[in-house]
Amino acid sequence: MTPRRPRREPTGARLLEIATDHVRRHGLARTTVVAVAREAKVSHAAVYRYYASRDALVDAVTAEWLKEIEGQLAGVADSPDPADDKLERMMLLLARLYRERLDGDPNLYEAWLAAAREARPVVRRHRSKLRQLLERTIEEGRTTQLFQSRSSERLILFLTDALYRFTDPNAIAADRSLDRKELERRMSRVLSATIRAMAIRVV
User: The whole model's pTM is what?
Assistant: First the structure.
């Protein structure tokens, strides 16, 4: 008889794939380490070898889910266009991608909001990456004199305060019942006015 090969334990990536599917289909409350382990045909202890806790597993799902947003925004920031044009496109894209995820992946969006309510590291890392892209673009605008201010920090605060309703994940969720196209038009008007103000040393 040919000896059986030992069953290979699934990789962390496979466990993450299963966990993502569970959150997407069943919601955060019904996603458990035991359920993920059962589908992967391993013990829950095997899952803990990759992820220290259920929160760590869900945060890994959330981080992977946010990577595409970060990548698309980085693509705009890396483009050769003028800083004011890049900033406008970045903010419009950020709002659109968040809203698309709310509409298309509501359970994963809720997992993200839950992490935000607890200020977990996955949320802080995402915000840090977005801030780095904003800082780089705004500093570029200051260097080329498209933006007028004593500091990039003042401009970042001005921009994020002005666009809070359109780019904050909780605010976007609160506006879900409103017409999406109308919200986009309103954001475009506010954003254009904000960038003009940044160009004439209002801040």
Answer: 0.89
